[in-house]
Design a protein that fits this description.
Residues 189-339 form the RsdA/BaiN/AoA(So)-like insert domain. By secondary structure, the protein is of the alpha+beta class. The protein has helices at residues 13-24, 40-44, 67-76, 79-88, 108-120, 172-179, 198-204, 238-244, 263-274, 279-284, 289-297, 311-322, 378-391; strands spanning 2-9, 29-32, 51-54, 62-63, 93-95, 100-103, 124-126, 131-136, 141-145, 149-157, 184-190, 194-195, 211-217, 223-230, 234-236, 253-256, 324-326, 330-331, 339-344, 362-364, 372-373. The strands form five sheets. Strands 1, 2, 7, 8, 9, 10 and 20 form a seven-stranded mixed β-sheet that branches. The longest helix has 14 residues, at 378-391. Bound molecules: dihydroflavine-adenine dinucleotide (FDA).
């Protein structure tokens, strides 16, 4: 039986940050991960360049049943603190868009920073070990892995969500929570592409690879203004990934395909100078031509010259394009999702230390908790913030 002060399950973003902090406090810390490398999700994130934080991160960028929980967490260790850390390590990075910071070279640079911090803090990292079970003892916990048994005073669960099972996602964190009677809120794939019903899929799959700047609105009124991307399975792109966190099965989303143009006004103007022009050509000059052809072929928009359109038809057409309604069939699920919505209820945890209110010495940080960020570096920031806060206490 290996004895340590702190055992961390998961050598991901949250686990490594927490381990280094606890190590700096003089705690003996071991991190266990079933993968053959630490930080595997960091390595594939942001197209291999890791969008490691967002300059504008604030509680509004997160979904959580208790916004104060996120506020408390982010305020203790902010994006500026993480930027200060990477600056100290000399990381080369750049601002891409909307406050998103990416590595210039490779996501490996972020993993290297975390590993250096862990090394300086005297942390032991054990890879290729799957955590199988946890038991409470009088002085802490016994953790059984595929290779060994550990006894620890503090147990930190940083085992992530269910996304990307190929990269070692397991439900162990939720199981441990349930074992100790902590509520786990229903989980769902989020930041994930939509699949379409067969009819729409067949119509639009030829557009695969085409993106359109749009505003996408969910039924709860949440909106994102970014690109949508047609894929051979359905719809993706940043605006779709964002809205997927707010979409529920059976609901529709509204897509404003021309957010910068008053389409009805534009047609009225063009009618005066160029009335013979076909509607198809007018629309084809502001939207992908192939898309318009599909809509005309399907009878969604009339195949007429613009001077043949009645006022009502113009209004209907503008409404159609500004509020294009799509009812997804579903999502691509955990296989391609970036994050898992739901997880350990924040009401069960201290927002200061991430310790379970009812179980002394048991902590949950990162994606295994119910906090889910938007796309754009927010999820890593939450991993750093929760990992740091827990590392001061565990
Ligand atoms: P994480 O999942 O990183 O780590 C958990 C670890 O626990 C894993 O290493 C796993 O192997 C281990 N584990 C699980 N069960 C175990 C068991 N039973 N025994 C032992 N080990 C076990 N976010 C962002 O902010 N910017 C971005 O650019 C991206 N990009 C991105 C791309 C893709 C493709 C994905 C899938 C996700 C992103 N994300 C992102 C989201 C981000 O990766 C995610 O929010 C964090 O990695 C969560 O960090 P955690 O440390 O909580 O879990």
């Amino acid at each position: 039986m290996v004895q340590v002060d702190v055992l961390v399950i998961g050598a991901g973003a949250a686990g490594l940050m927490c381990a280094a902090q606890a190590g700096y406090r003089g705690r003996s810390v071991t991190v266990i991960d079933m993968g053959k490398k630490p930080g595997r999700k960091i390595l594939i994130s942001g197209g291999g360049r890791c969008n490691f934080t967002n300059e504008n991160a604030s509680p509004e960028n997160y979904l959580c049943t208790n916004p104060h929980f996120v506020k408390s967490c982010l305020s203790r260790y902010t994006q500026h603190d993480f930027i200060e850390l990477v600056d100290r390590h000399g990381l080369a990075y750049h601002h891409k868009t909307l406050g998103q910071l990416f590595c210039d070279n490779s996501a490996q640079d972020i993993v290297d920073i975390l590993l250096t911090e862990c090394e300086w803090a005297g942390v032991t990292i054990q890879l290729r070990q799957e955590v199988l079970s946890v038991e409470k003892t009088e002085s802490g916990f016994t953790v059984t892995t595929s290779e060994a048994s550990y006894s620890c005073e503090s147990l930190v669960v940083a085992s992530g969500g269910l996304t990307m099972p190929k990269l070692g996602a397991t439900p162990i964190g939720y199981k441990i929570a349930e074992q100790f009677d902590l509520e786990v809120l229903p989980t769902m794939a989020a930041l994930v592409p939509f699949t379409l019903h067969q009819h729409d899929k067949a119509r639009f799959e030829a557009l695969s690879g085409i993106s359109v700047p749009s505003i996408v609105t969910a039924e709860d009124g949440t909106q994102f203004k970014e690109n949508i991307l047609f894929t051979h399975r359905g719809l993706s792109g940043p605006a779709i990934l964002q809205i997927s966190s707010f979409w529920r099965a059976g609901q529709a989303v509204l897509i404003n395909l021309l957010p910068e143009l008053d389409l009805a006004g534009e047609i009225h103007t063009q009618r005066q100078s160029n009335g013979q022009k076909s509607l198809k050509n007018v629309l084809g000059s502001v939207l992908p031509k192939r898309f318009i052809e599909i809509l005309v072929a399907g009878g969604d928009i009339p195949d007429k010259a613009i001077n043949q359109l009645s006022h009502t038809e113009i209004e209907q057409l503008a409404d159609y394009i500004h509020n294009w309604e799509i009812k997804p069939n579903g999502t691509e699920g955990y296989r391609t999702a970036e994050v898992t919505l739901g997880g350990v209820n924040s009401a069960e945890l201290s927002s200061k230390t991430f310790e379970a209110n009812q179980v002394k010495g048991l902590y949950f940080i990162g994606e295994v908790t119910e906090v889910t960020g938007w796309l754009g570096g927010y999820n890593f920031q939450y991993a750093w913030s929760s990992g740091w806060a827990c590392g001061q206490a565990c």
